[in-house]
Specification:
- There is one protein chain.
- By secondary structure, this protein is an alpha/beta fold.
- It folds into 2 domains: about 130 residues, Rossmann fold, CATH 3.40.50; about 70 residues, Helicase, Ruva Protein, domain 3 (Orthogonal Bundle), CATH 1.10.8.
- Helix content is about 40%, strand content about 10%.
- It has 9 helices and 5 strands, in the order H-E-H-E-H-E-H-E-H-E-H-H-H-H.
- The protein has a 5-stranded parallel β-sheet with strand order 2-3-4-1-5, sandwiched between helices.
- Helix 6 packs parallel to helix 8 and helix 8 crosses helix 9.
- It is elongated.
- It comes from Sulfitobacter delicatus.
Length: about 230
């Protein structure tokens, strides 16, 4: 396979169902998204570490349900009654832990969405109990939501994630590069995202292909033997 140099092209993140890799760590979450019409109380809380695929799965659900997606931090500027006329996904609820006004907006959105007979998906890092919400009525509503957690990745999922992240940047790595990275990187979704960002930046800056030597430089370890 010929070497491929990184080009300064915009990263296009693939967020469709076909690009979502189902593994034991996320299979339950995928099953709940597929069965969204049967959510207890019409709502679901999707939790997991940063980079675990919550945003990707949210977009999969939006394609299935026609839902609108909004960040929890944008709720104060949103038309809550208009949003509530259809299914809604609210991302990163943990980011409004110290924002009473945003929590109040989420509380009203929650009630209106369910009153309209629509579905509500909420996402956040860590378990719902650790989102740091302080509005008593909202906390009560969150306790009543079914929660499904996306776990840390296994080898198969982490490998597939690396390939996908590089493909989003129009880069096609050799299999041996993926294996090399897998044995030397921190084993988390967030680490995979950060590593690919650094690899892409180094490849662009140095006008070099993605090789094990470049990966060793980015990882700050001794280069591999030829």
């Amino acid at each position: 396979m010929a070497h491929q140099l990184g080009l300064n092209l915009p990263s296009r993140t693939a967020l469709g169902r076909d690009a979502f890799f189902v593994a034991p760590s996320n299979a339950m979450a995928m099953a709940m998204i597929d069965g969204w019409r049967g959510w207890a109380g019409g709502k679901l809380a999707l939790t997991g570490p940063q980079g675990s695929g919550k945003t990707h799965l949210t977009h999969v659900w939006a394609d299935l349900s026609g839902a609108q997606i909004i960040s929890a931090t944008d709720l104060m500027d949103a038309d809550i009654p208009a949003l509530a006329r259809g299914p809604v996904a609210v991302e990163d609820v943990h980011l409004i832990a110290n924002d009473d006004d945003a929590q109040t907006a989420l509380f009203h959105l929650h009630n209106l969405v369910l009153a309209e007979g629509q579905a509500l998906l909420l996402t956040g890092t860590g378990g719902v109990a650790h989102w740091g919400l302080t509005l008593p009525d909202l906390v009560s509503r969150m306790r009543g939501a079914t929660a499904v957690e996306m776990d840390a990745p296994d080898d198969a999922l982490l490998s597939a994630l690396l390939v996908k992240l590089l493909a989003d940047r129009q880069l096609t790595p050799k299999p041996e590069l993926i294996n090399y990275l897998m044995t030397r990187m921190d084993r988390s979704f967030a680490a995979a995202i950060a590593l690919v960002d650094r690899l892409d930046a180094a490849s662009l800056a140095q006008k070099r292909p993605l090789t094990r030597a470049l990966a060793a430089q980015v990882l700050d370890i001794a280069p591999p033997q030829a």
